[in-house]
Give the backbone structure.
Amino acid sequence: YLWTSKAIVFAVYLITAYLSSSMSEALQRQTHRIAVLNQVARVLSSTIEMDKLLELIYEQLSRVIPSDTYYVGLHRRGDEVIQMRVLIDQGKHFPATTIPFGNDLASQVIQSRKPLRLGHLSTESQSLSIPSVLVGNAQPSESWLGVPILSSDDFTGVLVVASYQPDAFNEEDVTLLENIASQAALALDNARHHALVEEQARQDSLTGAYNHGHLLQRLQQALERGKEN
């Protein structure tokens, strides 16, 4: 009886230690992710250049959600394509490109305005009748997670991470990615507004043609490039 009591006490101790360790690890992960969200908010306020914003998001995101592929697609209502502004696959940056807007995973997220997480893309995409589109390296991903960027009614997008390993993402990753996408939407709105104001400043208010000041600026830039060459 004494041995049994000691065994029970020891078992309770092990269970308590395990639960404490698990809770401690979960708390550390949560604390780290909150710190990343705060850092994302800071870096997004540091620039109004859209592509720079998207690169900064990737730098922060890669700290907490390991992935092979990262990209951001932007879509304007009525357009037939999604603009892939930033595309990084296994650390390699690919040039901006476009993919048709329609029946694919990225389009599904934009149209539904809801996140989509797949842990076995090779089989799940077939059951969903949604074809996957290869971007970056010519290698299909096995895990895919995309969340919508709800910038405005006529301008939306998708933030995607993918992995060549199955079940690479969980619900915590979905929540974190949604929070980052919300911050990105505000930053992208500011960037687009700034770009529009700058473009209007370069144009003549009556004709819409570029004004004298902008032409002189372009000429100066061309002269400086000529000197460098």
User: Anything to note?
Assistant: The chain has six helices and seven strands. The first strand starts at residue 69 and ends at 76. The longest helix spans residues 2-44.
